[in-house]
């Protein structure tokens, strides 16, 4: 077939194919041997400026050359959160099918805002939302939800809805409650919504990092006496620090008694509902009014995809519907959901596709197995640490998160020395590029934290990393004694 003359921004069929195969090969090789990739980049701004800053290119370059440049200079300077030794933050183990699904969604540039522009895209979003509603024992008929860019946007969407439904337009005296371990995105959302500091109650946690019920009840009672109107409690189902789940049943009871909105932030831990142990931890989650889950964490999806579920889908349309004239022709009838009416974004990518294709391809059982394996691995790491005289468990294995510190018993180190030792270990591990293991602070102690949701991570990987940690500890202790002599 003779090629047409080139319109701007196009390639020939053959060029597209060659280019596409190269990109696919690149992604396949990435998934093929994740353990051989450089896991972490420590580049600073100056180095990146030198490598990547450039004037706007007015003239074209060869596609292959641009691609090679990205392979050489960009992909070498990013962290790989899919790597089996990426233990920190919340890693994102991802999967190949979803990566390809994203390529399709983006390749066909499917608009997932309104029903009439892409009925099947809207329907698939309804399908995956229904799957989630079922998993979490939310009401499937009245319930609803929306896919967002991530947990932060899901929390913002939830709190906007909570305020609209509970407070209507008068919220100057409304108060909201969350624990000191709640994720920072909740505070950001509260700020975005324009609440004043005097309307926000940070409830202290107990020794196990759970929201203290007694302090929560006291705060609500005091606020009522002072003329405030409590309207919402944010419970964490899997805090990012320790994996701790707030007492959901009791919080649901308080919400029922006080007529408050119960939002559960399960961005990290929600996925554990698929594991037997997780179900026990998450008991009561089905009573939430709204629930954030984050498929780009423990549901193994590539960025970006978050999800908000609500008990009643009408709450979303009551909060977000606006009817501008320029959208009148794509309205459709009532059963046909326009997701732009259920959240903040109008133009939205087709996020449902990757979730749909990966769950359908692998089957939910494999997701269950992957989630269960993370929980079990973390428990095995706890056992391993407890058997060693060098390590101390600070917060036990909870929903695939464990916090611990190096504390060799024979050394009798002070708290200050222990903090410095564990900070040093983390720094040296990063500098060695062998793993990503960073610290957090728990009860004023510097501790090492692992979040082990990657089904490709093995106990041997972890023993290997702990072994390196012990070597760095020995060096640190040796230098320490020298200095103090
Ligand atoms: C990660 C996380 C969030 C934020 O989600 P993003 O997808 O990063 O926006 C919110 N809450 C908790 C508990 C999280 O772990």
Automatic annotation (TrEMBL):
Protein family per UniProt: Belongs to the group II decarboxylase family.
The UniProt record lists the keyword Transferase: yes
Residues recorded with modification N6-(pyridoxal phosphate)lysine: 297
Organism: Aureibaculum algae
Cofactor requirement: pyridoxal 5'-phosphate
Molecular functions (GO terms): carboxy-lyase activity; pyridoxal phosphate binding; transaminase activity
Gene Ontology BP annotations: amino acid metabolic process; carboxylic acid metabolic process
Name this polypeptide is given: Aspartate aminotransferase family protein
PANTHER family associated with the record: GROUP II PYRIDOXAL-5-PHOSPHATE DECARBOXYLASE, MIP05841P
Keyword Glycoprotein attached: no
Gene3D superfamilies linked: 3.90.1150.170, Aspartate Aminotransferase, domain 1, Type I PLP-dependent aspartate aminotransferase-like (Major domain)
UniProt KW keywords: Aminotransferase, Decarboxylase, Lyase, Pyridoxal phosphate, Transferase
InterPro entries: Aromatic_deC, PyrdxlP-dep_de-COase, PyrdxlP-dep_Trfase, PyrdxlP-dep_Trfase_major, PyrdxlP-dep_Trfase_small
């Amino acid at each position: 077939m003779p090629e047409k003359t080139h319109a701007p921004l196009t390639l020939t069929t053959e060029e597209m194919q060659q280019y596409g195969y190269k990109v696919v090969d690149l992604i396949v090789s990435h998934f093929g041997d994740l353990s051989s990739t450089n896991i972490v980049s420590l580049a600073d701004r100056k180095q990146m400026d030198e490598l990547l800053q450039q004037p706007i290119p007015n003239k074209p370059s060869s596609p292959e050359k641009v691609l090679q440049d990205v392979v050489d200079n960009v992909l070498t300077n990013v962290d790989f959160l899919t790597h089996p030794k990426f233990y920190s933050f919340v890693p994102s183990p991802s999967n190949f099918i979803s990566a390809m699904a994203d390529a399709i969604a983006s390749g066909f540039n499917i608009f997932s805002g309104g029903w009439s522009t892409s009925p099947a895209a809207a329907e698939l979003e309804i399908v995956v939302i229904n799957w989630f509603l079922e998993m979490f024992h939310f009401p499937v008929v009245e319930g609803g939800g929306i896919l967002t860019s991530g947990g932060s946007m899901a929390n913002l969407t939830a709190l906007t809805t909570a305020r609209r439904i509970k407070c209507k337009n008068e919220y100057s005296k409304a108060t909201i409650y969350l624990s000191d371990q709640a994720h920072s995105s909740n505070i950001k959302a509260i700020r975005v919504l324009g609440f004043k500091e005097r309307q926000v109650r940070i409830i202290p946690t107990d020794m196990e990092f759970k929201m203290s019920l007694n302090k929560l009840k006291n705060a609500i009672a005091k606020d009522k006496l002072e003329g405030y109107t409590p309207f919402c409690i944010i419970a964490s189902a899997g805090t990012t620090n320790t994996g701790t789940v707030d007492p959901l049943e009791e919080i649901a009871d308080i919400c029922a008694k006080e007529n408050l909105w119960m939002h559960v932030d399960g961005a990290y831990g929600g996925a554990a509902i698929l594991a037997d142990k997780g179900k026990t931890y998450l008991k009561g989650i089905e009573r939430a009014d709204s629930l954030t889950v984050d498929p780009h964490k423990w549901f193994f999806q590539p960025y970006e995809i978050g999800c908000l579920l609500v008990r009643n889908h009408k709450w979303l349309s009551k909060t977000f519907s606006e009817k501008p004239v320029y959208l009148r022709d794509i309205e459709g009838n009532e059963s046909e959901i326009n997701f732009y009416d259920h959240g903040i974004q109008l133009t939205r990518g087709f996020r449902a596709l990757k979730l749909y294709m990966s769950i359908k391809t692998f089957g939910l059982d494999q997701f269950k197995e992957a989630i269960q394996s993370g929980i079990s691995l973390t428990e095995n790491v706890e056992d391993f640490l407890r058997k060693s005289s060098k390590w101390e468990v600070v917060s036990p294995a909870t929903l695939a998160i464990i916090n611990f510190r190096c504390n060799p018993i024979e050394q009798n180190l002070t708290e200050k020395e222990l903090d410095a030792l564990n900070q040093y270990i983390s720094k040296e591990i990063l500098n060695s590029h062998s793993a990503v293991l960073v610290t957090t602070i728990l009860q004023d102690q510097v501790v090492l934290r692992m979040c082990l949701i990657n089904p490709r991570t093995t106990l041997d990987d972890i023993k290997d990393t702990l072994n390196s940690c012990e070597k760095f500890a020995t060096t640190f202790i040796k230098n320490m004694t020298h200095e103090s002599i």
